[in-house]
Amino acid sequence: MNIRLYSLSSALIVVAALMVLFDTLYFASQRPAYSHIMNTISELGETGTSHARQVAFGFFLPVGFLVWLSLWLVHRKAPDKQTSLMLLAMSCLGTGYVISAFFPCDPGAPLFGGWQTQVHNVFGVIDYEGTGIGFLLVSRHFARRNVIIQAVAFLVAGALVLICLALLSLENAHYIRGAIQRVAEIIEFVGVFFACSLLPRTQ
Q: What does the alpha-carbon distance between residue 182 and residue 202 come to, in Å, rounded to a whole number?
């Protein structure tokens, strides 16, 4: 039964990642001027767009819930507070998507905008910072068990997510922030997938 639960957890992350991929491509195709290099995923649901509600409640919200559900399934069998802390940190990925559904950004996703944009951006930081720290905690978990390859992989993943977060905050990176965000998203979903797959085997 435990194996089935953990397999389901990993499968839910795959479903969430595929939703991000295909929904991003679909809603971007509805905006001719949209650039995957320059524009963020958040801009697909920015205030004033014709598909804002569909993006919020048909894309962002279900993705966030899927991430939460996946990590909760692993958490059910978590043997200690350390494992729970790792899962809680990585759940920030889901939190970022859920909050984005209710607090869309202003047009153009400015660093400083209205109050909704500020809430959106704060939880965007929590998304990347929390998940990045979660990966570093997972790295330490594997290092303590002398599982070196996984420890190094999660260390690199955590560092890269945090570097992407730093780059996204730079005004000079404005014209490539879409690309930076997509790199961060890929690392996050791949990392959470492997965390859900590997952590239960090391308990």
A: 30
Residue whose tokens read 């992407």: 164
What tokens were used for 200? 């239960």
**Count of domains observed in the chain:** 1
Would you list the DSSP string of 113-133?
-SHHHHHHHHHHHHHHHHHHH
- List, in sequence order, every beta strand (DSSP E) within the chain: none
pTM: 0.94
Q: At what angle do helices 92-102 and 177-198 cross, to 10 degrees?
A: 130
Domain with 51 in it:
2-202
Q: Cβ(153)–Cβ(195) under 8 Å?
A: no
Q: What is the per-residue pLDDT across 62-81, written as a single tens digit (0 to 9) for each? A: 999 999 999 999 988 766 78
**Rounded to an integer, what distance in angstroms lies between the CA atom of residue 97 and that of residue 44?**
13
Instruction: Answer yes or no: are the C-beta atoms of 139 and 152 closer than 8 Å.
Output: yes
What is the phi/psi pair of residue 64, to 5°?
-60, -45
**Tens of pLDDT, residues 74-101:** 988 766 788 899 999 999 999 999 999 9
Long-range contacts formed by 109-112: CB under 8 A, 24+ apart: 109/39, 109/40, 109/42, 109/43, 109/46, 111/169, 111/171
What is the distance between the alpha carbons of residues 176 and 193, in angstroms, rounded to a whole number? 26
Please state, in angstroms and rounded to a whole number, the distance separating the CA atoms of residues 94 and 130. 10
